[in-house]
Amino acid sequence: MTPGLRPADFKISERSTALTALQEELEGIPCTTEPQQLSKLSIDWHTFSPVLSEKLAGKRADIVYFPTSEAEVIRIIQACVRHRIPLTPRGAGTGNYGQAVPLEGGVVLDITRMQSILWTKGGIMRVQPGVKLMAMEKEARKTGWEVRMAPSTFRTATVGGFVSGGFGGIGSITYGVLRERGNILGLQVVTMEAEPQILELRGEAVHQVSHAWGVNGIITEMEMPLGMAYPWAECIVVFDDFMQSARFCQRLGESDGIVKRMISLHAWPIPSYFVALKPYLPEGSHAALLLIAENSLEPLADLVKEWGGQITYTKPAAVCVGGTTSSTGKGITLMEYGYNHTTLHARTADPSLTYIDCLFPADPDLKAMEYLYRTLAEEMMIHIEYLRLNGKVTALGGQLVRYTSEARLREIMQIHRDQGVHVHDCHDFTLDSLQKKDASNRNQQLELKKRTDPLGLLNPGKLKAWMEWQAQQTGSPSM
């Protein structure tokens, strides 16, 4: 390939010939070119954003492969490198930034059939990337452990997709986010080269490829620490005043003696979108959805009383789906009303809604949150997930916005920034837009990509730093 020539620059006839040769070489590995399947497996939940829906419309893979082993992944990589065909990794497609959308066509590598749990010992589990979070939870609980954190899509989400594209989740109020030291122990990564290398990254080196959307290597194995399993009770606590509910949740997060797995706060009218929970959500009330260890229910009740809230719903672990945890079976669980599922439920009722993804400053007085709640009440509904970040209880925002235009959406995002709130730009499909405050990690990801993907075939178009560097090398303008 001519230096600086992108995979998308190939003529249609050249791409078609290359794809035909690719299929011949990879005979025996499951794949599909069926148009409807290609469309389905080329999108994720970026459709939450009207901006991304427009920008990514029509982006589709030419072929999807379903490897079941690392050996098959290596074969696919070698063929793609030989024919200069771009490759985009994909888990279950539950990400919402366009991580798995193939901007330049080519191959989508669907890892959902790599489902082996390789071993479990001493509170550590080694798995292939296609293992679902719920399957990990079930297996871990056999020996008294559970996954440390999971997205609200835990029933379908793969651990590989979560580590590659996620930030934190249910459990992060105790263990922090994926980025925290010790939450990922090891990752085995295959490089995008003619002769692929198999790298074992451990310690802080794992973050060169975690939350990197597969731009600099394909994860084929992961080693994850587990947490001690608890019987989790589910509770709904309602308040008449939003800021009182927010301060209660902050105090609950800081109450280290109360064992919890989720603190999810929803300003009215968000609770009105939770149809199955309607009997427990009084009109006009603001709701905190909680997962609390059963042995902490008594002190929780005392804290609720102290802050003037009302417990309207409690499901003891003994009657939760799955017996000891609501995360391991079917039926209603509050875990599926927080994080991205909040936006999903809201958009089911009102498809015109979109969201803003942000991180509030660690402020126990919640001044920025109160300002935004008072100022933007007509346009925005506050949704908060409480987690630990660098040891401090912090509010992660997934605000629901009544969308009118991209210009106004970005004005609202700037109002957040003016209050010291960090906005993850979930309406941009590049990795850099979510990592602006972490230049060191961004540079590490770029340096690794230079070594592991010299032709730039992995998930092309998602890393601005790579495109800028490539332009400098060739003297051509960046994309």
From TrEMBL:
Keywords: FAD, Flavoprotein. Residues 56-229 form the FAD-binding PCMH-type domain. Transmembrane segments: none annotated. It comes from the Bacteria. The keyword Flavoprotein applies. Pfam families: FAD_binding_4. It comes from Thermostichus vulcanus str. 'Rupite'. PANTHER family: D-2-HYDROXYGLUTARATE DEHYDROGENASE, D-LACTATE DEHYDROGENASE. This is FAD-binding oxidoreductase.
